[in-house]
Specification:
It is a single chain. It contains 9 helices and 9 strands. By secondary structure, it is an alpha/beta fold. The chain has a 6-stranded mixed β-sheet, sandwiched between helices.
Amino acid sequence: MPKPAIAVENVNMKFHLHKEKIDNLKEYAIRLVKRRVSYTEYWALRDISFAMQSGERLGVLGFNGAGKSTLLKIIAGVLAPTSGNVQVQGVIAPLLELGAGFDMNYSGRENIFLYGATLGYSRAYMKERYDSIVEFSELGDFIHAPVKNYSSGMRARLGFAIATAVEPDVLIVDEVLSVGDAKFKKKSERRIKQMFDNGVTVLFVSHNTNQVRRICSRAILLDKGGIIAQGEANEVCDIYDNMVGEPPPKRKKKKKVAGAPPVAAATSPSEEGD
């Protein structure tokens, strides 16, 4: 068996939530010396384990606060887990907080090279992709304006265009297919699917089960920091839809073959007793 592209083993993540607001480091240091710092422990993740083979696409579902973004940040190397191990093979492209690394006083053009550098790419590499990034972001002449004058949607579109201009082995996606208007959402989803066609391993977080069903082959469902379901994407999405009170999706009926004998309709356990 080849090495998994992503292997997560018994990962736990604990945060300290301070009971009182502390505005600066000096105040925190004084309180710490006087032993007047009080906090509660919060376990964002508990005993998370799963593995992904190269080219596999895994959806991650769960309510707000379930631990989805924390899990992605640990896999991307942004956070270190309290305990457990994570191994990732190859180059990672994390699409987590688009535009989070922008300098608001720089123009969009300057931020393309700055943001590319934070992702580990050279100026020459970004220069080769500059025109396609601007074209995809649809910013036009705004690319020369300071980013502080951009709307949040414009910043996210530019961040998405930069982050998806790379050629990763592992793609980590956190709700970025909701970027921009309906037209740009379809465009961004097509860009992601192009990366899929190149055999990229994908870890995809979304509240949209229709997207997870279309994009992913498997899925896991998180609740209160733990995995409560995992398996085939449609089955896990059905469980999540049931939790949020959504009706199950309509399944395509099989076409009737002319001359074939009638087939008795299958009944569910709940229908047998009706």
